[in-house]
Amino acid sequence: MVDVIGANLTVAKWSIDDYHRMIEAEILIGRKVELLDGYILEMSPEGPLHKDSGEGLVNYLRQRLGDKAWVREAGPITLENSEPEPDIAVVQSPRSRYRDHHPYPEEIFWLIEISNSTLSKDLTEKKRIYAQSGIPEYWVVAIKNREVYVFRDAVDGDYQYGEKFSTGTLKPIAFPEIEISLESLWSGDIY
């Protein structure tokens, strides 16, 4: 039930197949939406700082990872009853394997959301959805606060490890040879 202006309404949930049929039928054309837990939600627009931070991190990761993984920028991933569009998805190579489907959980190494106005949603709803899907690592880069929330080890629908960083260097578990300096990220020197 959803409360809309004092009225309790029952809202229909959509399946992944329903959502894909709507996309194919161009029902959602021109709308920036994603499917979360069966609900089609409008996505927040990206400001310049959000876009710049995401592009810089994507370029940095592509340079460092080479052909070890493919780094997708703001593209859908397909989960059980959600098709979110994380800002960055580090997935199995080669890129051509995703011509017929978006990455599934077992093909995902690590997800990153760049958060400016969506921090609460990224730290609750999206974190829960990603953990329930078994995504091994999830970072939320809170650019306003200059903090990175790191979540790892999804077990029984929740991450067993979660910590917040504002300085230092971070390394993803799938690629420990990759170091990300938070000072460079905050200054915009990462590219």
Features:
globular; alpha+beta; two-stranded antiparallel ribbon; 6-stranded mixed sheet; tt1808, chain A; 191 residues; 12 strands
Written description of the protein model:
The chain has 191 residues and is of the alpha+beta class. It has 4 helices and 12 strands; from the N terminus they run E-E-H-E-E-H-E-E-E-H-E-E-E-E-E-H. The protein has a 6-stranded mixed β-sheet with strand order 5-6-7-8-9-10, with helices on both faces. The chain has a two-stranded antiparallel ribbon with strand order 1-2. Strands 3-4 form a two-stranded antiparallel sheet. The model has no long low-confidence stretch (mean pLDDT 91).
* Terminal CA distance: 45 Å
Calculate Rg over CA atoms.
Answer: 17 Å
* Total separate domains: 1
Q: CATH fold name, please?
A: tt1808, chain A
Q: How would you write the strand order of the largest sheet?
A: 5-6-7-8-9-10
CATH superfamily: tt1808, chain A
Mean pLDDT: 91
Chain-wise SSE layout:
Layout: E1 2-4, E2 7-9, H1 16-24, E3 33-36, E4 39-42, H2 48-65, E5 70-73, E6 88-91, E7 108-115, H3 119-132, E8 137-142, E9 147-155, E10 158-165, E11 169-170, E12 180-181, H4 182-187
